[in-house]
């Protein structure tokens, strides 16, 4: 357990936060370096949550300090949704057309790698169980990674909203919010796990941040300390309410949306004057999709084998970076060859 505490409370925080440097005069809320680093942090928060939570039952409880990582997975997902919404708005809001290229990039960079990784993992799991099911293989491969499905739905909502708005940015943002509300309502009506709907609104909120970027940049430097304090305090309060009462009724679950909004504002405010320059987090951020998918499937395979969760913790920390790098290189090579065709 000493090694786990070291990684969780020294290794990861140190690699995430250092080095830092002050910045001034930024023209955007989040530049490419910011988004890469924060995606890396979000990926690590999710991975550590998935590794720590199962230990509670195996060890008949975990240390009080480790309990913080039981909620970081949700924080990481919220960060991903916000950055994805912000990034796609910045990349496409001013385009005169989206066309086939929009979906080619989404499919080649996100969905196809997900399907391939899920397919291979499902084969490994079925081989362990000595039970082959074509139906389960299809479902696990194409729909087994809930976050990937959710983000693809958000891309579809953005695409439809863009086609309808035709260059009217305000309408684009409003339609994206309405589309997210409609999808979230459907997930709620069909009694889906709350994770399917209580983070969706961070995607259009990221778009809203991109839409209001110039106004926010004008105000942020003057109210920097206030923005940090208010958003940070509100995040802790709303996040605490959600963590304490989640699952009891819809109002509590919606606190996660508020917590995500506050966290996103806090990140934007922080990045206005402080840049996290971690090369490790930037490296992970560029490969965050692969880290997310591979750690989940490796975790499930290890659990099927019956390995203790303490050993799984160290196996994931050692094996996932190696497996990610191999997968990332193969995917990058395939995409490069496809572009040349």
Please tag this protein with its features.
341 residues, mainly alpha, two-stranded antiparallel ribbon, 15 helices, 2 strands, 2% strand
Outline:
The protein is mainly α. The chain has helices spanning 2-17, 32-52, 55-58, 72-92, 99-129, 134-143, 146-165, 169-189, 202-211, 213-219, 224-245, 250-273, 279-286, 288-305, 309-340; strands at 20-22, 274-276.
Q: Which structural category do the helix and sheet elements fall into?
A: mainly alpha
Series of secondary-structure elements, N-terminal to C-terminal: HEHHHHHHHHHHHEHHH
Shape: globular
Give the C-alpha Rg.
Answer: 20 Å
What percentage of the residues does DSSP assign to strands (E)?
Answer: under 5%
Largest β sheet strand count, sense and barrel closure: 2 strands, antiparallel
Tally the helices: 15
- Contiguous runs where pLDDT drops below 50 for at least 5 residues: none
Descriptive overview:
The protein has 341 residues and is mainly alpha-helical. Helix content is 78%, strand content 2%. The protein contains 15 helices and 2 strands. The chain has helices at residues 2-17, 32-52, 55-58, 72-92, 99-129, 134-143, 146-165, 169-189, 202-211, 213-219, 224-245, 250-273, 279-286, 288-305, 309-340, and strands at residues 20-22, 274-276. A two-stranded antiparallel ribbon has the order 1-2. The chain is globular, with a radius of gyration of 20 Å. It starts with a helix and ends with a helix. 39% of the residues are buried.
